[in-house]
């Protein structure tokens, strides 16, 4: 049983720790400037479409 524990420990040390050490040397992402706020109307159109769909579902439920 101790041989199995020793083999598993050796396996962990030999394979997993080097991979974790590679992750430790990763580069951080450079800060990116936020894109300018613009509204081309698609968000408003989608909101109106969802509202109309909800009203249609409610009317269908009440009429049925």
UniProtKB/TrEMBL annotation:
Keywords: Membrane, Signal, Transmembrane, Transmembrane helix
Transmembrane intervals: 46-63
Protein name: Arabinogalactan peptide 16
A Pfam family this chain is assigned to: AGP
Segment forming the signal sequence: 1-26
Domain of life of the native organism: Eukaryota
InterPro entries membership: AGP16/20/22/41
């Amino acid at each position: 049983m101790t041989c199995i524990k020793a083999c598993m420990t050796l396996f962990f040390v030999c394979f997993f720790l080097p991979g974790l050490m590679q992750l430790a040397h990763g580069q951080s992402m450079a800060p990116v400037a936020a894109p300018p706020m613009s509204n081309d109307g698609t968000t408003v159109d989608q909101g109106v479409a969802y509202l109309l769909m909800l009203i249609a579902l409610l009317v269908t439920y009440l009429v049925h």
